[in-house]
């Protein structure tokens, strides 16, 4: 993973610990944006985004 943009993160307790244990690695690769920006079609087109929904 080079970079991720999201409106939120949903982590298990184990994933939460792993995330914060490696926070210094991840902090330059993740950005949390307001939902109005993340869902804006203009921004999506300009960034050439690939969207993925959370797996069920």
UniProtKB/TrEMBL annotation:
Entry keywords, A to Z: Hydrolase
GO terms of molecular function: acetate CoA-transferase activity; acetyl-CoA hydrolase activity
Signal peptide: none
One annotated GO biological process: acetate metabolic process
Domain of life: Bacteria
Name the record gives this protein: Acetyl-CoA hydrolase
Species of the source: Flexistipes sinusarabici
Lineage: Bacteria, Pseudomonadati, Deferribacterota, Deferribacteres, Deferribacterales
């Amino acid at each position: 993973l080079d970079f991720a943009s999201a409106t939120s993160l949903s982590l298990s307790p184990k994933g939460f610990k792993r995330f914060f244990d490696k926070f210094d690695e991840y902090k330059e690769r993740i950005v949390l944006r307001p939902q109005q920006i993340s869902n804006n079609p203009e921004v999506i087109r300009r960034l050439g985004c690939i969207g993925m929904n959370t797996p069920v």
